[in-house]
Specification:
19 helices; globular; mainly alpha
């Protein structure tokens, strides 16, 4: 909240003073009783006072720089604030901002509503032909067909030809990687390094940069490139808790024969999965079926890597046993979520 909304929210409530501070006197009691407000409920309570969702707020009226609302929306969803992200898209739609169509299209694609997603992304491009985010979002699902040189609709061909800047470099690298041309991906690394963390294609750029390093087969260079891949991933993880990064980090640690790093990465990955499962079990989030399946595959891949450490004297047996137990719990809970999930 900004100052004006804080004043509105406070209304005529009694001010906190040294002899009247309910934050100090009531907080511990509420937490002990288990009746504290969760982030989802708190966001709902504060939504009428959120300047991000107010069309007439200073964030939407003559702000001194252009805000990347698509990036903001993705960060909100990453913090399990999906409703706030949806409300932001609604606010932008009310303002006639075509960026709302990108956010709506991305959400529809995640839900498997590909046709509707493509229609909205095309509308976003038509409204602002210079918007590379809309264009990349549109073409992302077409990349496998583009890489195979499949026949494409003319409109898609036109949009491929219109991709510019670092988005074009990422698309070229993605296609090269899918064809197994790791040298081509390596040659594009300088361009990939220029991608901004707020760009829609940032995650793909980091994954491509890490992936080709992990796949270097020359034993002389493997450890160095694996460490470089880990640094790239760690920089990205500080911004995005993307599960693919942890899978890549596991692979990098394995290639570098860094047992301690591998075990710590596996532990962190399981912790994140357990937290997400708990949020789903508590009704705070509603994971999509394909997301659950993807997590189960990642956990199984991790289990295979960890199985290669059995008997390794560099890691205590009890640590591996704890990881195995945690892995089994996560798999069981993911399976339960999958059983009750929709299509």
């Amino acid at each position: 909240m900004d100052h004006d909304n804080v004043v509105r929210f406070a209304d005529d409530a009694r001010p906190i003073t040294d002899d009247f501070n309910q934050m100090a006197t009531q907080s511990a009691r509420v937490m002990d009783s288990g009746n504290e407000i969760g982030i989802t409920q708190l966001t709902k309570i504060l939504s009428p006072f959120d300047p991000l969702l107010q069309p007439n707020s200073w964030l939407h009226q003559n702000f001194p720089v252009d805000l990347n609302f698509t990036y903001i929306s993705r960060r909100l969803e990453g913090m399990y604030l999906k409703q706030r992200a949806i409300s932001l898209a609604d606010t932008l739609l009310e303002l006639g901002d075509p960026e709302s169509l990108i956010m709506i299209g991305l959400g529809q694609e995640r839900q498997g509503e590909t046709a509707e997603s493509q229609r909205n992304l095309l509308r976003a491009i038509d409204a602002d032909p210079s918007d590379q985010q809309a264009r990349y979002a549109l073409l992302e699902s077409w990349l496998p067909r583009i890489a195979r040189d499949d026949a494409l609709p003319q409109r898609i061909k036109d949009e491929v030809a219109a991709v510019r800047g670092t988005a074009a470099a990422v698309m070229q690298a993605w296609i090269a990687a899918s064809r197994g041309d790791i040298q081509r991906v390596s040659n594009l690394d300088t361009a990939l390094a220029e991608v901004k963390s707020t760009d829609l294609w940032y995650l793909d750029a980091v994954k491509l940069r890490a992936d080709w390093r992990i796949k270097v087969s020359n034993p002389e260079f493997q450890p160095r490139y694996a460490r470089e891949a880990t640094r790239l991933i760690d920089n990205a993880i500080a911004i995005y808790q993307d599960k693919d990064f942890y899978s890549l980090r596991l692979a990098a640690a394995y290639v570098a024969d860094d047992v301690q790093n591998l075990v710590e990465t596996a532990r962190r990955m399981l912790y994140i999965f357990e937290s997400e499962v708990a949020a789903a079990e508590g009704g705070d989030v509603s994971p999509e079926r394909r997301s659950i399946i993807a997590k189960m595959r990642q956990v199984e891949a991790m289990r295979k890597i960890l199985s290669n450490l059995q008997g390794d004297e560099r890691i205590a047996a009890y640590k591996l046993a704890n990881l195995e137990s945690a892995t089994n719990r996560v798999v069981e809970r993911l399976g339960a979520l999958l059983a009750i999930s929709g299509n």
